[in-house]
Specification:
The structure holds two protein chains of two kinds. By secondary structure, chain A is of the alpha/beta class. Helices cover about 35% and strands about 30% of the residues of chain A. Chain A has a six-stranded mixed β-sheet with strand order 6-7-8-3-9-10, with helices on both faces. A four-stranded antiparallel β-sheet of chain A has the order 2-1-4-5. In chain B, about 70% of the residues lie in helices and about 5% in strands. Chain B has helices at about 1-15, 20-40, 55-70, 75-85, 95-100, 105-130, 130-135, 140-175, 195-225, 230-250, 260, 280-305; strands at about 180-185, 190-195. Classes of the chains: A alpha/beta, B mainly alpha. Chains A and B meet through helix 1, helix 2, strand 6 and helix 3 of A and helix 1 and helix 7 of B. The structure holds adenosine-5'-diphosphate and magnesium ion (MG).
Chain lengths: ~300, ~300
Amino acid sequence: MAEPAMQLLDVKKNIGNKQIIKGISFTINRGEVFGFIGPNGAGKTTTIRMMVGLMNLSDGDIRIMGNSIKSDYKQAAREVGAIVENPEMYPFMSGKQNLLHYARMIPGITKERVNEVISLVGLEKPINDKVGKYSLGMRQRLGIAQALLHKPSVLILDEPTNGLDPAGIREIRTYIRSLAEKDNVAIIISSHLLSEVEQMCDRIGIIKNGELIATQNVHDTSVEKQVNQILMEVTPVKKAVELLKTQHDIESTVNNGALVIQNDKESIPQLIKTLVEHDISVYQVSVTKASLEDKFFDLIGENTIE
Amino acid sequence: MSNFFKLLYNEQFKIYIRKSTWVMYLLLAGIIITLAVVTNSYGDLNEKYQQDNWRDVLQEENNEINEHLQENEQSGQLTKNNFYLENDIQPRAYDAWQFVMENVFLLSLVTLFTIIVAAGIIANEFRWGTIKLLLIRPLSRTKILLSKYISVLIFAFLTLLFVLLISLIVGALFFGVNGDASFVQNQLGSYAHVSIYGEILKGYGYQLVTLLMMATFAFMISSAFRQSSLAIGIAIFLMFAGNSIVAFFADHSWAKFILFANTNLEQYEFGEPIIEGMSVGFSITVLAVYYIIFLVVTWLFFTKRDVAGQ
Ligand SMILES: Nc1ncnc2c1ncn2[C@@H]1O[C@H](COP(=O)(O)OP(=O)(O)O)[C@@H](O)[C@H]1O
Ligand SMILES: [Mg+2]
């Protein structure tokens, strides 16, 4: 089952005398969606440029379906579809003309396949308009379409959620999950916003200052069991804060007039009981699972994630 | 091979879908038509010789010139007319072919346009950001580079063909086509009887040397600096300043190795080369060395350098 699609082996990159990437290793399996997360300037795009052969590696190697990007570039590139940074296309050509342009660069891509990817990303309507008129979201879709033309085993998307509204992100999530699950494609999604890609990923790798500082399975039970954030709408709030402190030894904060508590779900009935017994009106209680983002804030430092 | 043909198709498509390319062609067509109108209105079309008594017309003209001629004064027209009379050649009526021949100077415009295309064909991909999506395909960078270079040459060829054909068509409409291919040409003061087709071929051919060298040069700058305006600027500056540069350094022994001392191969057809000790073989060798250097530098920059951001 765990068939490696892409392996990074101690990849390093120096630009000038500055080490931008300081030895990154990880493996992505077929059918897996890997979130490559880190603050701006962490080295995501640089790593991706090396994965697709735009930049030479200073050290280490990258293998794509077993082919080294250094010694078997053509075979390796055959297995990869990518967008790198902004999905820039020829603005004076239509979306269709852009796709046909890239289709001509790889043997065996039929007109039917081109139409297939167009409908996959939902660009049928504007496909004959000039790309110069496209919104960023439309260009992201067109970028994904060109990356899928040749049915790659590895799909690399650099910040694909940039410029998308929540609906657009949901849509991308749908076909990314389907590509991974139905077509067994290994997908790498980079982002500086963990929250935007977390839900489409199986695994997250955190990069900071050119180093991979942690990887984490998104659906790990250990993550599920994490501390929950409990939001309560109560009056009077001040009294509630005191009560929780004295009765349950729980530190709580007030955010936008609501009570915020970090605790596990099981404690909620008891907390409500205490509050009600002390004549505090409870209007609403909600629980959010502490996101991975909260967990990784510690690793990255809250201020650097944007 | 069909694979490479598709790359050429892509590059041609990207050149010819842009309006700026069509502006170039419209400009050329406009200039050619204007030239035809001006020549038709003010030019000497040799109409007066197109009758059976052309010899008398020439003789009469000579008599008139002699009357007004001061002592020791030369007249080019007189020499030319005498050449016609002595060799019994009827002056050729101005026609489309002659119009084509005179339009050879338009090749400097073709060169200019080719420089612009050559300078942009790599640099624009960087400017648009499309270089990334272009170079992540399972193709060697050498192949992509070659498709771009050959596309520049195809553009130059098509543009040249355009100038030739439009000149011929416009010329035919304005002046007609003369079946007589023979043509009397001034060659450093004396006159010779030559074929007009041969002259057209030679005239255009000589210009192609500069075109090829400057387009390749612009292509190199474009590849090295990834910036088209710089490539266009330097190439055009050198194209126009070339002769002055050679003249400026003419006293130095190495001046003959300057590219522009060698681009004009016509200098060997009549008389002395601009710098002593030069020959056709020498110039062709120098040109070949420059050409290879341009291509190797282009290739090194294009294939070896990272495509980094910023
Ligand atoms: N061409 C370059 N020259 C010098 N430094 C660069 C270059 N490209 C990127 N960097 C540096 O490398 C680091 C990583 O950049 P990048 O990979 O673009 O980060 P990310 O995509 O994670 O935002 C940044 O500090 C950036 O300034
Ligand atoms: Mg980036």
